[in-house]
Recover the amino acids of this structure.
């Protein structure tokens, strides 16, 4: 994305519902995304996954800019905002506007799945890890998925198992698709203990932990995932999160919030595709007039502006529901994820269509010019799959309509 591309959301979207504190956060994150992330985004978004390519400098810069404190309470050393979930979602939109992979790895996983779960860890663990998280000195991961248990996180599907030993637990099993795992210092792991699920915090340097090579994926190249193996790993007792047998509840609490984050990332990617395409349509003429003068495309983009307004309103409302403890939060989060993630793919596809070859290309050999839509299209697909496939979001909404007996 060139810096000159006008940000159309500033003109088209009414910030009616955003408190002053959220607008300030948005300004700060946008400045960071434009000045620090954007210059390296094309390379990050287009270079195949590797541990050596992990952007440690960005982790450190985000820490120095204070961005990792945004979601957390004063008691935990965070900013103590009145609307922390809302600020986190706006941060995700702004970051995904430039790089979906970075938004997913360093905000959705690092701050929501890892950071949010850390809030429920023991006081000693929190006192040790929160300052290092804020400073950008550690990277965290969060592991529920396994080769045969991802969408289905039932006790019979889950294979990673812990047993009690003197001073703690021993952990054995295997996790799959774990974001940040090739570079992580700590990882929350959902495991079976007796006949229920428990969440433990694993030090990735502990004996018996092994991480595979990063997976090679269709998109989100800056988001490293891998298989993680636990071979009789000792986990000290104070690395238990909350209480034994409450692990699934803890995981679902973080995942519910993470879902809104995926919706917000979708809005960021959709807005980036929209802005690029509209700018292009003004400047490209076919049959003697700019593409922006063709009613077909005017109407399509009018529809997309409307969908962007709806998708952004949904994630904003879901985040406020989270911040104010509304009973509707799970349904709101499901709707926000469903709409935001679907819109990103739909908009990217049509943005590529109207930009023609300049939508399809990532770098034009003749000029060296870089183009963003190809990466946005690839990156958008995973939003419909992870943190609860969109069919699961439909299932959650359907439950509200037809009841659990009918839906399951
Ligand atoms: C890039 C990436 C990053 C990830 N990061 C993490 C991470 O950090 N931590 C972690 O624990 N996991 C992570 N995951 C795992 C991710 O959340 C799972 O991939 C996702 O939950 C889907 O699981 P699966 O791929 O095994 O598909 P399955 O569970 O096998 O499901 C396949 C498909 O079946 C369909 N389906 C499933 N259930 C239903 C239903 N009830 N009704 C109708 N259709 C249904 C859906 O279309 C779904 O996409 C990541 C995955 C990827 C690809």
């Amino acid at each position: 994305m060139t810096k000159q591309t006008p940000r159309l959301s500033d003109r088209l979207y009414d910030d009616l519902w955003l408190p002053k504190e959220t607008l300030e956060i948005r300004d700060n994150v946008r400045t960071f995304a434009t000045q620090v992330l954007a210059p390296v985004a094309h390379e990050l978004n287009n270079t195949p996954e590797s541990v050596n390519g992990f952007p440690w400098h960005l982790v450190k810069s985000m820490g120095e800019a204070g961005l990792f404190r945004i979601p957390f309470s004063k008691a935990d050393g965070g900013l103590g905002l009145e609307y922390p979930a809302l600020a986190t979602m706006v941060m995700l939109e702004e970051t995904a506007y430039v790089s979906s992979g970075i938004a997913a790895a360093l905000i959705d996983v690092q701050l929501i799945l890892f950071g949010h779960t850390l809030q429920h860890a023991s006081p000693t663990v929190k006192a040790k890890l929160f300052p290092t998280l804020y400073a950008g000195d550690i990277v965290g991961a969060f592991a529920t998925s396994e080769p045969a248990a991802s969408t289905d996180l039932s006790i019979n599907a889950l294979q990673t198992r812990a047993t009690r030993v003197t001073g703690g637990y021993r952990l054995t099993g295997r996790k799959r698709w774990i974001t940040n795992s090739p570079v992580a210092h700590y990882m929350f792991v959902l495991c079976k203990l007796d006949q229920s699920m428990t969440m433990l915090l694993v030090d990735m340097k502990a004996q018996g932990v092994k991480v595979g090579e990063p997976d090679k994926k269709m998109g989100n190249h800056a988001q490293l995932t891998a298989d993680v193996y636990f071979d009789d790993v000792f986990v000290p007792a104070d690395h238990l999160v909350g209480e034994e047998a409450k692990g699934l509840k803890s995981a679902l609490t973080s995942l519910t919030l993470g879902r809104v984050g995926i919706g917000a990332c979708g809005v960021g990617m959709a807005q980036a595709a929209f802005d690029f395409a509209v700018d292009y349509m003004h400047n490209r003429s076919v049959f003697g007039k700019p593409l922006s003068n063709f009613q077909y495309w005017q109407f399509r983009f009018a529809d997309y502006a409307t969908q962007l307004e709806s998708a952004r309103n949904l994630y904003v409302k879901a985040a406020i529901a989270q911040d104010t403890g509304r009973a509707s939060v799970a349904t709101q989060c499901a709707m926000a994820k469903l709409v935001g993630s679907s819109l990103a793919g739909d908009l990217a596809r049509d943005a590529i269509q109207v930009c023609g070859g300049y939508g399809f290309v990532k770098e034009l050999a003749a000029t060296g010019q870089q183009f963003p839509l190809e990466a946005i299209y690839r990156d958008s697909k995973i939003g419909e799959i992870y943190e609860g496939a969109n069919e699961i979001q439909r299932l959650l909404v359907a439950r509200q309509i037809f009841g659990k007996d009918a839906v399951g």
Summary: The longest helix spans residues 247-283. The mean pLDDT is 96.
